Amino acid sequence: MNQRVDPAQLMTKVSAVKRETVAVLDVGTSKITCLIVELPDASEGENARPIVIGMGYQISQGVSAGQITDMVAAERSIRLAVDQAERRAGIKVRKIHVGVSAIKVVSQLATAEVTLNGQVATSEHLSMVLRHAVDELYDADYDILHAIPVNYAIDESNGISDPRGMVGQVMRVNVHIVKAPIGPLQNMRACIERCHLECEKLVFSPYASALASLNQDEMDLGVLHIEMGGGSTSFSVFYENKPIYIGVVPVGAHHVTRDLARGLNIPLASAERIKNLFGSALATGEGGHEEIELPNVNDSAHIVQHHMLTNIIRPRLEETFEMVNAQLERSGLAEFVGRRAVLTGGGAAMSGARELAQHILERDVRVATPMRLNGLPDMATGPAFSASAGIVAYMRRRQTDQLGELSSEPFIIERIFRWLRRNF
Is 330 exposed, middle or buried (0-12, 13-18, 19+ CB in 10 A)? Predict the structure, then answer.
């Protein structure tokens, strides 16, 4: 979990070590968060943690379910969040890693092979077989966010993590491809550029959230991670330290807010506040008869009992977990999850969410908070901030994502010629 430390002491300890300073931005439906972080130097060892030196936070405007719906409003929110982080860190940001979500994300497993003919497998062979795998699922209407090798094999030997230096006849690879419609991603990049920032990498936020909240045993033995966001709920399956499937259902915490506003005849702002203060997916100890005073749309107050909130909230959360379960079963990968599930995101903080998930998913469920990061303010240590912390975690293990290795100029030119041949 996040460790509270004295920033002055941290700066004294690392003053003799040159640390890389990076910035990350999580653009969500509910909020926009910017973190400016010092990454540990390689000489500090694998257990050294990044240090947050600046944070900015704004209510999200102009963004819905991972898409820009109002360019001007979204730009304003992003600028304010970044400016706040810059002032607290005392530096200016030019390049940034951006976390995004998308309802229509596609998760696919690609398989490819390359002939070795008895030669020693080299980095060039790895690049070649990975390019073949990515090209297998190439679609001009989609942008690939991640390409993560799940398994290498040489001849009959499977389960190889790094085949370089090995000898064989044929090398095969299974690659997990995560891609999303190109239009919304182009709009996101355009919005970032309007803020005079260079987007170094788009990261799928729910995947990043898992990296910040899962422990090593969970990643190795198999786990279902569920990110309960504002506009959607995303989930990922980890097995043997790799994500093997990612899915999204189009229901999130904002749907609960709208249900409350309609069911109780109150403004959306009041519904959000009531949800955060009194919302629960389970009946309370007193049978739900506690009285809550609510303002309605005419600004006149009326009284409701607590069980009325639960009767509105519970069906929506049940629907969410049932949709996740159904999509997981359709993927054919439910057996790799085992008995564990982890909840993150703002919706995970709601009272009773864990117990309801445990009942519907029939798994041991815990609510996770960001790990592997020092210096987070107290307000950012809850499950709602796992995604922004996870982008930092992603940067520390980005070598597992081979998409950057496939962005060389020859490969880009090859892809352009391929697209021209297919379309003209």
Answer: exposed
Question: Amino acid identity of 419?
Answer: W
Q: What strands, in cross-sheet order, belong to the sheet with 142-154?
A: 106-115, 170-181, 142-154, 157-160
Residue whose pair of structure tokens reads 């005073």 in the numeric block: 293
Phi, psi of 98 (to 5 degrees): -120, 125
The residue whose two tokens read 């030196």 is 53
How far is CA 315 from its chain centroid?
A: 25
Parallel/antiparallel/unpaired status of strands 95-100 and 340-344: unpaired
Would residue 191 be called left, alpha or beta, if left means φ above 0 and alpha means ψ between -120 and 50 degrees? alpha
CA atoms of 389 and 25, how far apart (whole Å): 10
User: What is the structure's pLDDT at 138?
Assistant: 85
CA angle 9, 13, 19 (to 5 degrees): 115
Question: If residue 209 lies in a helix (H) or strand (E), which one and from where to where?
Answer: helix 205-213
For the entire predicted model, the pTM comes to 0.87
- DSSP assignment letter at 299: S
Asked if the model's pLDDT at residue 395 lies above 70, the reply is yes
Residue 312 tokens read as 């509105």
Please give the Cα distance from 214 to 220 (Å, whole number): 10
Listing DSSP states for 212-257 in one string gives HH--HHHHHH-EEEEEE-SS-EEEEEEETTEEEEEEEES--HHHHH
Q: Which is it for strands 142-154 and 170-181: parallel, antiparallel or unpaired?
A: antiparallel
Q: Sign of dihedral through CA atoms 71, 76, 77, 78?
A: positive
**C-alpha span between 264 and 256 (Å, rounded):** 12
- Average pLDDT (200-229) is 95
CA atoms of 235 and 228, how far apart (whole Å): 9
The pLDDT tens digits of the residues spanning 10-43 come to: 444 444 557 889 999 999 999 999 999 999 887 7
Do residues 208 and 132 lie in contact, with contact meaning Cβ atoms separated by under 8 Å?
A: no
Q: Which two tokens stand for residue 89?
A: 């860190």
Q: Which residue has the higher pLDDT, 308 or 300?
A: 308
